[in-house]
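Summary for the funding panel

The consortium committed to producing paired sequence-structure records for every protein in the target list. Below we show the first two records in order, beginning with the earlier of the two.
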Amino acid sequence: MASGPGDKHPALLALTSSALLLPAYQGVRADAPPEFIELGTRYSKYEEDNTQGGKTFGGSSQRYEVDAAQFHLLAPVADSWSVAVDVQWEDMSGASPWFVGQSLDGGPKVIMSGASIEDTRTEVSVTTRYYYDRGNAGFNYVRSKEDDYDSNAIALDGALNSTDGLTTYSAALSTSQDDIEPTQGSVPTNTLKADKDISSAWIGVSRIISKNAIVRFGLAYTYRDGFLTDPYKKNDRRPGERNEWAASAGYRQYFIQPDGALQADYRYFDDDWGVASHTLNLAWHQNLGQSTQLIPFLRYYSQGEADFFANIANTDQRHYSEDYRLSSFGAISGGLRVRHEIGNWALTAVGERYETDESWGVYSGEESPALVNYWRYSFGLDYLFK
């Protein structure tokens, strides 16, 4: 069994996103191009816990591991432009849940993929941005290639500040075309070749409410069309369309006395597959002198199961899935990010632990025996050419 486009956990996708790991795009974009060239590199490790023997047929099983290396370049161009290039390489290995069977006591147990997954992914992203008096606009192209998956995506975004400079209005549009050609192992997959399209739109507004506080709100819509089934799951046949909606809110507050800032974000998600979720992110940005910052963070996530999810799939139905990512569960993760500057250099390190349990969620449903726990680590080095 090889890895597939639907075989990545949402947290894994967040881990391997250049925009999340490389800090140049973080925060509110300035309305002027960068003054200096920035270079950055990252190494990241994602490691899922072994599946417990009591939840699988055949004893405990090693799960997914990903090693990722990233390179980032941001440079000013002329007086009003900038260009950014991000390159990412991933090496993936391990085993993933194949399907769920019924044990002698009547409970569900996982059948793992057996043979170790071996896959690589290369992603190249190029972004150009134009800055004007009251905002900026950007264009982004991303090319991603795996052994069994090709994707091309483009995005447009823009921001406009109010005349008093206190409010920023933002919007973005994106679309991608993905080609899927699953690797055929000893057990054939449920498709030989397929494709899917994804289109998204987002609007947002942020407002400075005091000299130390900012609030923001956003709305997003995503439409997926085509082959949305996971070809590496035995009992998986999903609808060919998916409509997704999300609403988000955020708050930033700086406190003078501890020289730190509170970050709080909430997101509500809903779709026409029956999946709904709540996400709450909390972080504290603590400055230690002029060159060091500690950022402890905590995340809570709760999801309701899809209408067609069941631990033991009913293949007589039109749509069905045993995929734990479509089940009902709650998840808690926490960690620490450290950043230290030495002259023009900046060192960063991140460690995170993620755990799931059906009882932690606000929605009721079947607990999948394939729920995942993982560790994530990242180490980075940045240089600013002044």
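The next record, for a separate protein in the list, is shown here:
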Amino acid sequence: MGTSIIMGLLFYFLSIIQYWMLSGLFIGMYEERTENKKMDITSLFRGFDHGMPIFMYLLIMIGITFAVILIPMIILILGASSGSEAVMGISMLIFYLFIFAFSIILGVLFMFTIQFITFGGMEAWDAMKTSAAIMKNNLGTGFVYFILIFLLNLVGVMLCFVGLLVTVPMSMMVMYFAFQDVFQIESKDATDEIIEHLV
């Protein structure tokens, strides 16, 4: 039990700090490509320079998730308490399909939030609103992007999880280049006009 608790806490801790480390990775990649600064392991911790906005982003996402997931959770509980295996099975299917669809929608709408916080210096809510406003006009592209990322990491899982050591970094790099491709942050002429046009 003690080992399980420790592993659970470690996994939870890593799942949280990954957002700051993702920001640090973006910073390291940007500086390596534009300023010839070699990226190293310390670059991952530079995301903590944006500590509070990213923390607020996580709090908002948790709040949205709990608020939206409440109704399907009630359906699942009612299905489990009905005593019928068929009803319980249908309830679980509805619950997991809803969670899957909801996760994709959130992922697509807010896919550029960390990048806007990192490169635009935005606060959490402003970054989320900007990302959502842009992605609402590009839902199809965002959906295809997330499916491809999902399939890429699924391959990593199928390779006894060891493949994730390759596919997860690749996914993070794709996130950087997707943002760069749209907003041209590496260009000296990058301005807010691009964002305003996309919104």
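Regarding this second record: The chain has eight helices and no strands. The mean pLDDT is 79.
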